[in-house]
Specification:
This protein is of the alpha+beta class. It has 7 helices and 16 strands.
Length: 326
């Protein structure tokens, strides 16, 4: 006999709760904020809106279902089951935080504070939960399957992310590494410079392709590889900053976009590969040439892969996808 569905309500500690944990009482928190020109009432009102949304969603769970709650800080210790329907109550980023721990469960994003979130991933209101919960548990429920990105090291460590994965220095130092590609069709160097030599002196096509596939030593502030979902966040800021001509992928697109941050030209490091797209099956491969680099996803630095000299990490689209109820 199959288990009844379980509603897993994912939430995060509010700013008001964090203030109370730090200062002990409402009065002390109010004094702390007033000294900085802020009102504690505004913070408490947002806290109450979040908890009203949580209560409304909890009350909408069918009586025959089981339900539980998990706070963001406990996601890495929570065991999701195949029968779960995951309801994220909060911000867009909270959906990304939960995505890496899932394995195909449907996700409903509930905007707990409408007007403050972009609503890219938390697309629904708490009042819609009564209809959405039984719908999401149906086998034929319509979902958007959003591409995720993964980093896999040469010693089999693995990191998943919904938006992007950053590989770079843990502080403000320079990351040194060799950047290369692998896959069924290695992409050429973007925007290659014209060859000034006469046509008769140019290399044959096969030799040119081999040169384009050769890894390039680089020194930079790090590398960002992201999905179409991430193209609405950090990835897009890099794209805008450099006025890139790349067409960023859509959330369900299997392609990834990647950017090198502040690549530095020197006698031993190059800057000819600083942005591009990865099609399905293609990967970006970095071999570390620094004492220590880190790789973390979706801005969560506490859950990072630590990379040392000579270690290699491959970044590509993951087989896993986030199943987001539209």
């Amino acid at each position: 006999m199959s288990l009844a569905p379980r509603a897993v309500l994912v939430h995060r500690t509010t700013e008001y709760e964090e203030l109370l944990a730090r200062h002990g009482t409402h009065g002390q928190a109010a004094f702390f904020l007033s000294a900085r020109g802020r009102s504690v009432e505004e913070v408490r009102e947002r806290h109450e809106r979040v908890h009203r949304a949580l209560a409304e969603v909890a009350g909408a769970v069918p009586l025959s279902w089981r339900q539980t709650r998990v706070e963001r800080a406990d996601l890495d210790r929570f065991l999701f089951g195949p029968e779960d329907v995951v309801v994220v109550v909060g911000q867009d980023g909270l959906v990304a935080n939960a995505a890496k721990y899932l394995s195909g469960q449907p996700v409903i994003g509930i905007d707990a504070d409408p007007g403050r979130n972009a609503g890219v991933l938390v697309r629904h209101r708490a009042a819609q939960a009564r209809r959405l919960l039984p719908y999401a548990a149906e086998a034929g429920a319509a979902v958007d399957e959003l591409t995720m990105v993964e980093a896999v090291t040469d010693d089999a460590q693995r990191l998943l992310a919904l938006n992007e994965i950053y590989v770079g220095p843990p502080g403000h130092q320079t990351a040194r590494y060799t950047l290369g590609f692998d896959g069924p069709k290695v992409p050429p160097k973007p925007n290659p410079k014209p060859n000034p030599k006469p046509t008769k002196e140019r290399k044959h096509g096969q030799e040119q392709e081999q040169e384009q596939q050769e890894p390039e030593p680089q020194a930079s502030s790090g590398v960002l590889v992201g999905t179409g979902t991430g193209a609405t966040g950090w990835l897009r800021s890099l794209w805008e900053q450099r006025s890139s001509a790349l067409t960023l992928p859509a959330p369900a697109d299997a392609r990834l976009a990647w950017f090198v941050r502040e690549a530095w030209p020197s006698p031993t490091t190059g800057t000819s590969r600083v942005e591009g797209l990865l099609d399905a099956g293609q990967g970006l491969r970095l071999t570390v040439e620094s004492d220590r680099l880190v790789a973390f996803g979706d801005g969560v630095e506490s859950d990072a892969l630590h990379l040392t000299w000579g270690q290699t990490v491959r970044l590509a689209a993951a087989d896993a996808r986030l199943r987001l109820v539209g």
